Amino acid sequence: MSGLIPQRFIDDLLDRVDLAELIGSRITLKKAGGNYKARCPFHDEKTPSFNVRPDKGFYHCFGCGAHGDAISFVREFDHLGFTEAVEELARRAGLEVPYDQAARQEMQQARTLTDALDFAGSFYRSALSQPGAALARDYLRHRGLDAATIEQYQVGYAPGDGTALFQAADESLQKPLIETGTVSDRYGRPRDLFRNRIMFPIRNTRGRTVAFGGRTLGDDKAKYINSPESDVFHKSREIYGLFEAQRALRRLDRLLVVEGYMDVIALSQHGIHEAVATLGTATNQDSLQALLRHVRHVVFCFDGDNAGFRAADRAMENALELMADGLHLQFLMLPEGEDPDTLVRKEGADAFRKRIEGAAPLSRFLFDRQSEGLDLNLPEHRGELRARTEPLLNRMPRSTLRDAMWHEMLRLCGRRDWQQGGRREWQKGKDFRRFRGPERISEEPAEVRLSRDSSLSLAVIEAPELAEEVLEAARRDRSLRQAGALASWVREARLNRHGEVIEALAFDSRARARFFHLFDGIEHVPERENILASARELLTPNQEEVRRQKIAALIKRKAAGQFTEEDHQELKRLSRGDGG
Fold it and tell me: Does residue 98 contact residue 6 with C-beta atoms inside 8 Å?
């Protein structure tokens, strides 16, 4: 919706807003020269590191890195979307946001639907206190929920009467309730979707109700049901409990993803406010992207049964394509037969927090799961581990994390203890040999040594700006044929960045055919820093040492009867000291 607001209006609005007055209306600011300082509202701190620069129109926290303009501040502080933040600032400035007519109609329709859903939420909350909801209140009391938590999450009750909500709504709200699926007219007459159920409102990050989840109090086949998708509810984009977590913590550094509404609420009541739940049966990529828009650190918490491990595997596999440096994903598998609700009530919040802190990083979880049932002392099982793991790692984008996990796979799959540690001994008094297995497993990765040609070829791909130097080195040293050819192509194609080289190699059929076998025989590629360091040593060598090495190589060729006239002239030039 932000694209529907003219940029010139946004610029004018920011010019009109007094940033110090805006922020000062929400937190206490202290004058510091021409600027203002305060304790940051977005993270806990004891000394002020939050700076406001009214003359420049931005704020910055040197503690947590929060930074932005007036719109950013209102969005973060009030948990609003971009459009809502612009509207709030426009209201303060006495301006009207100039939407076009189509945008106005779309927004009005969305507001009508959320108004109807907010009404339904109020109706369910009110119904929970009615005489007919005694069973619902007993259920919540049995689950250990207190009144404050019930109010915080706006838990309610849907009466068993199939038309109670529809009849309670004004005529203007009845059609929107049908449009959201909260009331169904599937059989030609209105009927409430939720009947005799504990109700959990699903609220967006602005606190507006967009859907409901309902837990049966009877013997319905479906223990839980959710609202169908609508114009205001897309289940893969919404996170249950996120709004409440933002209000409780102000700044979110981490989210704990659990499986159910009651898990979220129970953890919150025990002081673990970062718990949320995705909607649906699996954590898909849309859900993950919704989570990662708010935090860079996600801990997935699953029950320790087979279904929980399958759900964890799906979450891990869906996460691989999104993993980038700076993201931190962990997996917490609970004891079998326990869920967060039962376990936090049984062992307390401190013990549960220790479990969260000890959750397995994605890398460890992946290798642990893929190596289940394998004996990595056996070559066949090491091959099986690689066959299982390599396709997963290939789904990850290029990153330091992927490189590190690739090296870990090679370490696990490349054990040679059976060759190095195993030894055959004569058994005393016997005339046959007995094999004694390895006493210990070595965890040191094998050292990777590349030829000078391969090292410089890798360097050209990683840093195309080295192409000219590599080409010059190839002119001096005929053993650098591959690197010289690659550097010449990079220079002619005017490729200046690593990504451009990779893209050209992928989509230029001639280049792909020409350099397809460039790195055949290389077990794995060193890290970028090591590639460039090796290249720098090769490109700026000790010239005298190079001259001596070339002379020795030419003399060796002469002794082998492979000496050419060109070699003879080269030897004369080097012997005169004309350089390397």
Answer: yes
115-128, pLDDT tens digit by residue?
999 999 999 999 99
Helices (H), 493-542: 498-507, 509-515, 528-539
φ, ψ for residue 300, nearest 5 deg: -90, 130
Instruction: Say if residues 50 and 59 touch (Cβ distance below 8 Å).
Output: yes
Closest by CA position to 340, among listed 227, 285, 260: 260
402-425 per-position pLDDT tens digit: 888 999 999 898 754 433 343 333
Question: Is the Cβ–Cβ distance between 277 and 240 less than 8 Å?
Answer: yes
What are the residue ranges of helices labelled H in 293-399? 306-320, 340-347, 349-357, 362-370, 379-393
Identify the burial level of 424 via C-beta atoms within 10 angstroms of its C-beta, where 0-12 means exposed, 13-18 middle and 19 or more buried: exposed
- Distance, CA of 388 to chain centre: 22
| Residue from 271, 240, 249, 252 nearest 148 by CA | 271
Three-state secondary structure call for residue 493? coil
Distance CA 378, CA 404 (A): 23
Cα–Cα separations (whole angstroms), residue 338 to 8, 258, 304, 351: 56, 12, 7, 14
Which of 283, 277, 292 lies closest to 242, judged by CA?
277
Q: 44-103: per-residue pLDDT in tens?
A: 777 888 999 888 888 988 877 788 889 988 888 877 778 888 888 888 888 887 766 665
Q: How many CA atoms lie within 13 A of 415 on its CB side?
A: 22
What token pair was written down for 412? Answer: 């696990």
SS3 42: coil
